[in-house]
TrEMBL record:
Protein name: Pilus assembly protein
Biased composition (Basic and acidic residues): 1-15
UniProt region (Disordered), positions on chain: 1-60
Domain TadE-like: 77-119
Transmembrane segments: 77-98
This protein's record includes keyword Transmembrane helix: yes
Alphabetic keyword roster: Membrane, Transmembrane, Transmembrane helix
Membrane recorded as keyword: yes
Length: 230
């Protein structure tokens, strides 16, 4: 297709597209117009190094931090130090939870055993068998033998006509063991107080000065009732 033509004074001229000159080309042309030749590259202005700047300091000349400051700022071994600080507290807390859990389990077992053995006194089974503690002790051991030593389970049984006159309370020795125990099951219609105790040794020596007495803890269960008219 032929290019468009424009008529101007009877002459036909072709419209040619304009070519835009860039700033770089204008700079080169102006340099050639002034000096006749472009400025050589080796004589061009080079950027100044920052080493000569007054605000620049060489790291080798900077003052080094002191050893104590470097030690405080260092983070190597921080996890080991934190564990050493909190490890003892966490261990004591874990031991305390285990001891409390075992004590509560033994307390619940001893309560159930005391109630089961006291029923033999309340119904007159022990009195009709001669008033001896053998049936009562056998009933206790049948309930606690899985967690406790039957030889270490001690009991105190007293009876009276009025609860106000009964000397409720137990006596213990230096090892928290029940001493001066009695076994008086009473007769029909009398009021009876049964106290069963077991002294357990703590598993963890670290808690012997915190819980119990000389590393021993007394677990005591008390049952109060009135004998049936058997």
């Amino acid at each position: 297709m032929a290019p468009r033509a424009a008529r101007d004074g009877g002459l036909e001229r072709l419209r040619l597209p304009r070519v835009r000159s860039s700033s770089k080309s204008r700079a080169v042309s102006s340099a050639r117009g002034r000096h006749g030749a472009p400025e050589p590259a080796d004589t061009a202005r080079q950027p100044r190094s920052i080493a000569g700047h007054p605000m620049h300091r060489d790291r080798r000349c900077a003052p080094r931090p002191r050893r104590f400051r470097a030690f405080l700022a260092g983070s190597s071994g921080a996890a080991a130090v934190e564990f050493a600080i909190l490890g003892l507290v966490f261990t004591m807390l874990l031991c305390f939870v285990v001891e409390i859990g075992m004590t509560m389990l033994m307390q619940s077992t001893l309560n159930e055993a005391a109630q089961a053995a006291s029923r033999l006194i309340r119904t007159g089974s022990v009195q009709q068998a001669g008033g001896q503690p053998a049936p009562f002790q056998a009933a206790l051991c049948a309930k606690v033998k899985l967690l406790m030593d039957c030889a270490q389970v001690r009991y105190d049984v007293i009876a009276g006509d009025r609860f106000a006159t009964l000397p409720i309370g137990v006596q213990t020795d230096a090892d928290s063991q029940l001493v001066n125990t009695r076994f008086v099951p009473g007769s029909a219609g009398q009021n009876v107080v049964v106290q069963v105790g077991y002294t357990r040794s703590l598993y963890f020596p670290i808690l012997k000065d915190v819980m119990g007495h000389h590393g021993n803890l007394l677990i005591l269960s008390t049952v109060v009732f009135q004998n049936e008219p058997y």
